[in-house]
Amino acid sequence: MVSIKYLIVFIQLALLAHCLPNELVVEREEPNYAPNWDSIDKRPLPSWYDESKIGIFIHWGVFSVPSFGNEWFWLVVHSMLVAMEWIQRKSIH
Questions:
Q1: How many other CB atoms are there within 10 angstroms of residue 73's CB atom?
Q2: Is the sign of the CA dihedral 63, 68, 72, 77 positive or negative?
Q3: Sequence-distant (≥ 6) Cβ neighbours of residue 79 within 8 angstroms
Q4: pLDDT of residue 19
Q5: Where does the Glycoside hydrolase family 29 N-terminal domain lie (predicted)?
Q6: Residue 50, domain member (yes or no)
Q7: How far, in Å, are 10, 11, 19, 20, 63 from residue 24 at the CA level?
């Protein structure tokens, strides 16, 4: 029975929201941009994008590390060095 009460309240709220005047809805005019640099440069940039350091993140990201073929290069090189040290120590003893 509780779910029926919630359903009735939901339907009433949906009808009330549907009956609200359209004056509350603000419509914006979308500017028309042409496919050229002059037109595109007129668009406003959001402050969070203009003031952020996103270029540093993209440039110094995970895959900016030299990997010489794939991102597992340094792991393979390190494990080979460990294996070579183990072989050298074993041959000495």
A1: 13
A2: negative
A3: none
A4: 76
A5: 27-77
A6: no
A7: 21, 21, 11, 8, 48
Is 5 within the bounds of a domain? no
CA 91 to the chain's CA centroid: 52
Domain that holds residue 81: 68-92
Amino acid letter for position 88: Q
Alpha helices (runs of H) in 20-53, residue ranges in sequence order: 37-41, 47-50
Whether this prediction's pTM lies above 0.90 is answered by no
Token duo for residue 53: 């350091």
Tell me, yes or no, whether 33 lies in a domain. no
Going from the first residue of the chain to its last (93 residues), give the mean pLDDT of each consecutive group of 10, the final group possibly shorter: 85 82 70 86 81 64 60 71 76 70
